[in-house]
Amino acid sequence: MSGQPFNKENIGRRSFLLRAGLVTAGIFFSGCLRRIGGRKSEYEHIQGNLRGPNAKAGHMLRDKMPLPLSSRQENVKTLIIGGGISGLSAARWLKKNGETDFKLIELEDHTGGNAYFGSNAVSKYPLGAHYITLINNEDQQLIDFLHETQVITHFDEQGLPFYNEYYLVFDPEERLLINGHWQSGVVPDFGVPDTERKQIERFFKLVTQYQNTKGSDGKYAFNIPIDESSADEQYRQLDNLSFTKFLHNHGFDSSYLLWYLDYCCKDDYGRHAKDVSAWAGMHYFCSRRGKAVNAEPNSAITWPEGNGWLMKQLRSTVSDHILTSHMACDIRLQSDGVEVKVYDHSTNNTYTCKAEQVILASPQFVNQKILNGIDRLGVDYSKMNYSPWLIANITVNNLPTSEKGMVLCWDNVAYGQPSVGYVNANQQDIKLIEEKKVITYYLPLCDKEPRLSRLAAYTRTYDQWLDIVIPEMEQMHPGITPHIDHIDLWLWGHGMIGPATGYVWGETRKQAKQPVGDRLYFAHTDLSGISLFEEAFHQGINAAQHIIDKKHAS
Amino acid sequence: MEILVGLVGGTSSTILFMVFENISSFRIVLYGLISFTGILVGLEIPLLMRILKDRFEFKELVSKIFTFDYIGALIASLVFPLLLIPYLGLIKTAYLFGMLNVLVALVACIMFKDEVKGVKYLKSAAIITLLGLLAGFIYSERITSLSESLTYSDPIIFSESTPYQRIIITKKGRDLRLFLNGNLQFSSVDEYRYHEALIHPVLQALPNAKHILVMGGGDGLAVREILKYPQIETVTLVDLDKEMTRLFRSNDMLVRLNKRSLLSPKVTVINADAFSWARAQQRTFDAIIIDFPDPSNYSVGKLYTNTFYGVVKHLLSPDGIMVVQSTSPFVAPKSYWTVDRTLQSVGFHTVPYHDYVPSFGEWGYIMAMRQSVYHVPDHYVAGLKFMSKPCLEQMLFFPKDMARIPAQVNRLDNQILVKYFEDEWSTVQ
């Protein structure tokens, strides 16, 4: 008050700060203690378990475990290895083109790959891929499939599709918890300063520009399937740059925008923006141009079981050709065909399958183990990195509704969180009120390099995962814990290929797509570099088409 | 003084809760309470300085008082959002802090009994206030429900929460009112205007109608109107809420109001979700009455989409007529004409009309049919209090302030109606 330096007051202020600090710390630690002490009782009522792809079978391959001796030989013209979307799509295409002599073997006891799904008394729910967006109108093969399955019901005079109203994602679609408020839409808006809003606008202008750009070869700069994109160097060179670097070069530094783009990379590729190439980063935004009569551009198409629904449609056309719990463990090229050693782990039998040709619709990290003495020149397996994911299907008997802002949507995201949020598996339910809901929470494990994240993930127990999942759910919905009945966890060690810098247009992918000696054909999204239903669908068709063409040629 | 701070602060949120309904005085009370608390707290600082002036040097005194003042403010600002409001709720927190204030006074009385005059009087005042606040703290739950009862102007004679909604019935004189989730569904004084307008333009135009479907309308009042036509053989009522239809079949007063309509042998009550039920049906009906709650949320909004109307169209016989209650064309013209446009989008010809229901205001309905011509019926069944030929002719006319405006189709994947409805009704309330 006197305006002079005053020692005593300084001490007072210091002690004040100290005391204030102690009080704050006290509150913080008492909160922590309550958590540690009360954890068991808080989570005790929650049931569920931790599952994942059949790790035992996978490790048999990795560790080259001795198998029972081959008991018999079977002959088949075409053998498809892998019952994910690529393999099923290849099988469908063979069948559609009059082939009947083929078998599809799948290591798991079910088909589906990462379009696999689960169900409980409340609902079906996805365990991985869970939606597609409006299909680019020139993608005739996929449009035909969707028409066959009534995802597209009919076309108008201009040939523009009508999508099935029950599959177009129901409104309200997306919300974001940001600055303490649930805003509508996932692009940050609520509480975002004007200068940053302008940057967000500028980014989307850039997107529109790229979206409609064609290269000198008449192809779009970014397209789906990825191999339909322009070969012009000016676009492809974006693959040699990380997405983060690209954004920096364009002067994008808004933290809200950068968060959003990082979220998108995590959502689609399971990696941070710094770990994917600029080409892949922009592909997410610039490759979708699908139009429909009865839906807005970029509309999502989804089912309670996610892409499991599409998978079942593919499977239903070829179900008599499928053998599950059958694992290919050794593939050798011979002068008259391919010899595949198959282990049936439901009966613990091994047999030899002799095929004229084989479609390997399995990921390359598996092919690397089973291709015996077969060299794929120029393929550097270490360049293929697969992102691990944790999926939690949470059955809740009530979602707190007292929050501020937008009500429950299909896609619900919280700003600045490790997960990419959760989707409401019951969104496409026409029922007015469900007493219980299943929500599917997606956590990409991308903070370390994939190999380390995977190792760390394999060591975690169910309870330890709950300690990651539940606090985040609490952050989104304070007080939700007592309303959780069930949490089913699904861990993907190799969830999806990550389009790292230089992968999409690099040598490894180019070489890995090449058939070997007119006998071995490859079909998998890791050969596209991005894990999309559309890519898998075309991977399968392309491999099958090679075989059909070969037959016609001979 | 500390006691007074406790009393005012402690009861403030309860008082505010109670008076919230009375909007005009709410702000006066709010600012009054804040000012009063502010003045009391403000008085404390000079008072404290005077009391402590003999103990400390002035500068130190000021710094100490402000130090503690700020520490208190810091603790409160942390503790309130993190612990108290989430765990205790607003009302209990207020009482708790009121009690703390009074406790300070009580402790002060005891510690400084020599320096304070009238200790006994103050002590007993503090204890009484403390007990009062404690009672408020304990009974705060009841206070919440008491303040709920104040939101309904008439005495509540029935209230029940079903899995789907909160049903409340009020009665004042001969006026019986039904509220679902706080929204008025009917007032017995004028509900005949609504239900006659909903039913008779359709049924009077279908002299051969035998099988009728009613969706929503679990109060049985629409069914009461339908049963006035002797040729009608069956009425199928689909309402989600079992409790609702049970109530309107068993409660004396309500059964008298709907003339035992839900107990008629012609009537089949089905408690099911309308959308799922309709999708699973094969049979057709000569008339369909759609009497759902207003599209105030995304769940009910699904029942106003082109997809739903497409499904229901399959249940309507070739010459049949359907009618949809479609909110107010006066308050919510955009919403009203969106329903009309949506019905047209699935291939219906529409006949929009409206009437005045005093407890609702100007209300709208839309008839939908396959054929393009609707003839206003000449005669009406006996026993109507409202509908007549000239009345319907008037209802078909839309004055300028409710005239048709261009609208979009309401779809499951856009639900524009819910947004319009919220915008339009929020501007009147």
What fraction of residues of chain B sit in β-strands? 15-25%
Shape of chain A: globular
Proportion of residues in helical segments of chain A: 25-40%
Give the count of structural domains of chain B. Answer: 2
Order of the strands making up the biggest sheet of chain A: 1-20-16-19-18-17-9-10
> What is the CA-atom radius of gyration of chain B, in angstroms?
30 Å
CATH superfamily of the largest domain in chain B: Vaccinia Virus protein VP39
Which assembly state applies to the chains in this document? heterodimer
Mean pLDDT of chain B: 86
What's the CATH class label of the largest domain in chain B? Alpha Beta
* Estimated structural class of chain B: alpha/beta
Low-confidence stretches of chain A: 1-11
- CATH class of the domain at 55-118 and 306-379 and 500-553 in chain A equals Alpha Beta
| SSE-based structural type of chain A | alpha/beta
What best-fitting shape of chain B do the alpha-carbon axes yield? elongated
What characterizes the major β-sheet of chain A? 8 strands, mixed
Distance between the termini of chain A: 101 Å
Gyration radius of chain A, in Å: 26 Å
Q: Could you name the ranges of chain B where pLDDT drops below 50 across 5 or more consecutive residues?
A: none
Model description:
The complex is a heterodimer of chains A (554) and B (429). Chain A is built from 15 helices and 21 strands. Chain A is α/β, with parallel strands linked by helices. Chain A has a domain at 55-118 and 306-379 and 500-553: FAD/NAD(P)-binding domain (3-Layer(bba) Sandwich). Chain A has an 8-stranded mixed beta sheet with strand order 1-20-16-19-18-17-9-10. In chain A, strands 2, 3, 12, 13, 14, 15 and 21 form a 7-stranded mixed beta sheet that branches. In chain A, helix 7 crosses helix 9. With 429 residues, chain B is α/β, with parallel strands linked by helices. Chain B folds into 2 domains: 2-149, no CATH class; 190-426, Vaccinia Virus protein VP39 (Rossmann fold, 3-Layer(aba) Sandwich). In chain B, the strands form 2 sheets. Chain B has a 7-stranded mixed beta sheet, with helices on both faces. The model of chain B has no long low-confidence stretch (mean pLDDT 86). At the A-B interface, helix 1 of A face helix 3, helix 10 and helix 11 of B.
